[in-house]
Write a structure and sequence with these properties.
- By secondary structure, the chain is an alpha/beta fold.
- It is built from 13 helices and 10 strands.
- Helix 5 runs parallel beside helix 6.
């Protein structure tokens, strides 16, 4: 495993991290989830990403149990706050001072730890003054409950304003967690340049585009049983944008490129996002331990410029690059408002 600094901080994270969105406490039985975490640890992964909203807090509980007994100082644990949790009352959502303080306390209890390494705003909250949010995060840091602050799917402008307030409050805002893959490159035009200037690193999710870049979805065919595209608990909604014959045909055309560099399609996809120097870590999930073992083989891979050009030529116009998609995919009001 290779390690990278998280933004311009002194914190190093494994360049491939393990995330339990849509799996722990939901799609995957607890014992299987724990086996995946064990495989991640054995593969050298030290960075684990979760959120209070995943399986309505159950994912944090499963991760906390899976990591119990592992030397805490050897791990980097990331979690998030914003989306509705619990019964979904009017204050069980958002980035208010009340919700942030109650959420960090709940997360620490479920994760069985005294602190998280990075506490992330899971989305921007348009209904809470940003000053209130950042002051609450500053309280969390000063209480020793989080070492660093991060965001997820914030626009360049939101990152710039959040970073300005963080500097005034003397707390480290060092990361952003966006979706990023060969097929979804919306952060490249604005978010990445702003982040480079601010010293913010990307911890990207969905590097294999919800499984589409594994090549298991074939054009003109029904999705395989048990795949994310057949998951009615939320997975199917996330992956459907990529399930067109044009996209799936072009993904199959990537296989000779992957073969040429000795990688599977999944490994090629993960290695591709890691070529971006602003990416600190790529989050991978798994429903089986062997998937973890295969994913980590993308660590340390250097793709030559010619290979990157071939990938671009194959994918062509199907790549989504519109920078406005970051704002468009973020809630304009709090869920439930």
């Amino acid at each position: 495993m290779d390690f990278r600094y998280l933004g311009n901080s002194g914190l190093k994270v494994s360049e491939i991290s393990y995330g339990n969105w849509l799996t722990h406490g939901s799609q995957v039985e607890n014992e299987q989830a724990k086996a995946c975490v064990k495989a991640a640890l054995e593969a050298g992964i030290t960075t684990f990403d979760t959120a209070d909203v995943y399986a309505n807090t159950k994912a944090e509980t499963v991760l906390g149990e899976a990591l119990e007994g592992v030397r805490r100082e050897s791990l980097e644990i990331l979690t998030k706050v914003y989306w509705p949790t619990g019964p979904g009352g009017p204050n069980d959502v958002g980035l208010s001072r009340k919700h942030i303080h109650e959420s960090i306390n709940g997360s620490l209890k479920r994760l069985k730890t005294d602190y998280v390494d990075v506490y992330q705003a899971h989305r921007f909250d348009p209904e809470t003054p940003l000053e209130e949010t950042m002051e609450a995060f500053a309280d969390v840091v000063r209480a020793g409950k989080a070492l660093y602050i991060g965001t997820s799917e914030w626009t360049a402008e939101q990152l710039q304003e959040g970073h300005r307030l963080a500097r005034e409050l003397r707390i480290p805002l060092v990361s952003n967690q966006p979706q990023y893959s060969m097929l979804w490159r919306v952060i490249e035009a604005e978010v990445v340049p702003a982040s480079e200037e601010l010293g913010i690193g990307q911890v990207v999710f969905s590097p294999i585009a919800q499984g589409v870049l594994t090549g298991k979805y074939m054009p003109g065919e029904q999705p395989p049983q048990g795949s994310r595209a057949t998951d009615e608990k939320g997975g199917a909604d996330m992956v459907k944008r990529f399930l067109t014959d044009d996209v799936l045909t072009r993904v199959q055309e990537l296989k000779p490129i992957a073969d040429g560099v000795g990688l599977s399609l999944s490994q090629l996809a993960i290695a591709w996002v890691l070529q971006n120097p602003n990416v600190s870590s790529a989050i991978t999930g798994a429903s089986r331990p062997e998937q973890v073992t295969e994913n980590v083989k993308a660590a340390g891979v250097k793709l030559e410029d010619g290979v990157l050009k071939q990938i671009d030529e194959v994918l062509g116009h199907i790549v989504v690059r519109d920078a406005a998609m970051t704002a468009r995919n973020s809630p304009q009001t709090r869920p439930g408002s």
